[in-house]
Design a protein that fits this description.
7-stranded mixed sheet, 3 domains, alpha/beta, Helix Hairpins, Heat Shock Protein 90, 5-stranded mixed sheet, 14 helices, single chain
Length: 494
C-alpha cells in the first residue's frame, strides 16, 4: 500500500549514492512531451545533469494541471507509487482533473498506488516547517515505495510556505537539499508554485534553486540555477556576478552561432525543396514516355509475346505506376513548403464531407461506415486539410481487418485548439513503430500486401506542422488505430 505513517522512525535515511535508480527526470520530461494536455516545447536533457527535481510555476489552474496530470498519469501507468501533497481546496479538483485526463484516480486511491496528503500531514506535521523532519519523511517514503512499487513520484503544492512562522530561508535550503536526497534514487518530484500568490522576490530564489523549470507550458533547463554550495555560501555575491557575466557571454555566443546555423539551414532547406519540386516535376515527362511505350508494346504485340515477356511488361507497367504515385506524392509534399498557404476559417464538416464523397467507390466496395458528429471550424488551408483527412480516411479503409471498416471522426476543444481524431477498427499498428510511420518513404508492409508510397502520413505531419499543430497515433495490433490532429481554432486567426 502506497501510504506513509507519521509516527514511524527509521535509523538512517536511504542515501542517494547507495542505489542506482532508474526513475529520473527524463521520464518526467517524456510524460509532458507525449501528453495531450501539455502543448508547449520540452527541452531534452542533452548533456545536462539530470537532477530529479522539477518545478512548475503556474498562473492558472489549467496551467497547473496541464503539467501535473500527465506527470502523475505516467507514474501510475509505470507502476510507481504516486504521492500528492495538496491543500484542502485542491484535492477534489485534482481528482477531477486526473479523471478528465483518462486516469481512474479513485481506483488508484483505493489500491494505494495514489495517495493524497495534506500540508499538515507532511510539511507542517510538527506544527512548523522543519527541513530535517521533511527530508526524513521523504527518505522513508522512498524506502517504502521502492519496496513495493517501481519507484516514488511526488508532486506537491507549496502555497503553505506563506503561512506565518515558516522560515523561508530554511525552505529554500531544504529545496536544494532535496536534490541530493533524490539523486540516484527511483524517485522524481514536481513542485508547484502559484505565481499569483507567491511574492516575486521569493520566486526569484525559487527559480535559482531549481535546475529544471516549467513555465507557460515550456520545459527548460534553468541557466539561472545556482548550486546550493554557491547559493548559500559566504562568497555568494562574487559567485553570482561571475555567473551573470558568464551567462551573458555564453548566451550571446550561442545566439550568434544559432542564428548563423539557422540561416545556413534555411538556405539549404530552400535549395532542397526547390530541387525536390523541379526533379519531381521534370521526371513526369520521361516517365510518361516510358508508360506510353509500354502500353504500345502491350497493345500491339501482346499476342506475339510469350508468357514470360508478358510478365516482364506487367512488372514494368506496375513499376512505372508506382513511380508516378511517388512523384505525385513528392510534388504534394514539396508544395506544402513552396506554395503559398492561405489560412482562413475552414469548416471541418465540409472538408470531411468532400473527402467521403471522393472515397464513395472505395466505401461501397469495402462496405465501410463513416460517422462524424459536430466538427469545428478551424484556421487553416482548405486544400491541405482535405489532403490530410483524405490520407487518414484512405488509410482507415485500406488497412482494414476482416470486418468492414468502421470509421469515427470526432473533435474536442483544448485551450484555443481543436483535437480532431480519426479512429478505425482496422489491423492496427505495433506500438514499437508508431514513431516511424510519419517518416517519409517508411512503410510497414510489403507492396504485395498493401500498396502505397510511404508519403501519406509524412504529408499529414507536414500539413499539421504547417498549421502550427501536430499529429500523433494511438494503436495496438489488431485493435484499430486513432490518429489525433491538433489544429488552431478559427478564433485564433489573428
Amino acid at each position: 500500500m502506497c501510504s506513509f505513517g507519521h509516527d514511524e522512525q527509521t535509523d538512517d535515511s536511504v542515501r542517494a549514492d547507495d542505489r542506482n535508480g532508474s526513475l529520473g527526470l527524463e521520464s518526467g520530461l517524456e510524460a509532458l512531451r507525449s501528453s495531450a494536455e501539455f502543448r508547449g516545447p520540452v527541452e531534452s536533457l542533452g548533456d545536462h545533469d539530470p537532477n530529479e527535481h522539477l518545478a512548475v510555476i503556474y498562473e492558472s489552474q489549467a496551467e497547473q494541471f496541464a503539467a501535473v496530470v500527465p506527470f502523475m498519469r505516467q507514474g501510475l501507468e509505470r507502476g510507481e507509487c504516486c504521492l500528492y501533497v495538496a491543500d484542502e481546496r485542491s484535492e477534489g479538483e485534482l481528482i477531477e482533473a486526473m479523471e478528465r485526463g483518462g486516469v481512474d484516480a479513485r481506483a488508484a486511491l483505493e489500491s494505494g498506488a495514489l495517495s493524497v496528503h495534506t500540508i499538515q500531514d507532511t510539511y507542517l506535521r510538527t506544527g512548523t516547517f522543519d527541513p530535517d523532519e521533511m527530508l526524513e519523511y521523504y527518505a522513508e517514503a522512498i524506502e517504502a515505495a521502492t519496496a513495493e512499487y517501481e519507484g516514488l513520484r511526488v508532486s506537491a503544492e507549496t502555497t503553505w510556505i506563506l503561512e506565518e512562522g515558516t522560515n523561508l530561508e530554511k525552505f529554500m535550503e531544504y529545496e536544494s537539499r532535496v536534490n541530493d536526497l533524490f539523486y540516484g534514487e527511483d524517485c522524481i518530484a514536481l513542485c508547484q508554485y502559484d505565481r499569483d500568490v507567491i511574492p516575486a522576490d521569493l520566486l526569484c530564489d525559487i527559480v535559482r534553486t531549481h535546475p529544471h523549470l516549467i513555465y507557460d507550458e515550456t520545459v527548460c533547463h534553468n541557466f539561472y540555477y545556482t548550486p546550493p554550495e554557491e547559493f548559500f555560501g559566504d562568497d555568494q555575491p562574487d559567485r553570482e556576478v561571475d555567473r551573470m557575466l558568464g551567462t551573458l557571454h555564453d548566451r550571446t555566443t550561442a545566439k550568434v552561432e544559432r542564428n548563423e546555423m539557422i540561416d545556413a539551414l534555411e538556405e539549404s532547406n530552400e535549395q532542397l525543396q526547390r530541387f525536390a519540386y523541379i526533379a519531381s516535376h521534370d521526371l513526369q515527362e520521361p516517365l510518361r514516355m516510358v508508360s506510353t511505350y509500354l502500353q504500345l508494346l502491350e497493345r500491339n504485340y501482346w499476342d506475339d509475346l510469350d508468357e514470360e515477356a508478358r510478365e516482364y511488361i506487367d512488372f514494368a507497367v506496375g513499376g512505372a505506376d508506382r513511380m508516378r504515385e511517388m512523384i505525385d506524392g513528392l510534388l504534394e509534399f514539396s508544395r506544402i513548403e513552396t506554395d503559398e498557404t492561405t489560412f482562413e476559417p475552414v469548416d471541418c464538416a465540409d472538408v470531411v464531407d468532400t473527402v467521403v464523397t471522393d472515397y464513395q467507390v472505395q466505401i461501397e466496395e469495402s462496405r465501410a461506415t463513416i460517422h462524424w458528429g459536430s466538427l469545428p471550424t478551424v484556421r487553416g488551408d482548405r486544400r491541405q486539410l482535405e489532403q490530410l483527412f483524405s490520407n487518414l480516411v484512405g488509410n482507415a479503409i485500406k488497412y482494414r481487418g476482416d470486418e468492414p471498416p468502421r470509421i469515427e471522426i470526432d473533435a474536442a476543444e483544448r485551450r484555443g485548439h481543436w483535437v480532431l481524431s480519426v479512429s478505425d477498427n482496422g489491423i492496427g499498428i505495433d506500438p514499437e513503430y508508431t514513431d516511424e510511420i510519419f517518416d517519409i518513404f517508411n512503410r510497414l508492409h510489403a507492396e504485395e500486401a498493401y500498396s502505397g508510397t510511404g508519403i501519406g502520413l509524412a504529408l499529414c505531419r507536414k500539413i499539421a506542422a504547417n498549421h502550427d499543430g501536430g499529429i500523433r497515433v494511438d494503436s495496438e495490433l489488431g485493435e484499430g488505430t486513432t490518429f489525433s490532429v491538433t489544429l488552431p481554432a478559427a478564433r485564433n486567426a489573428d
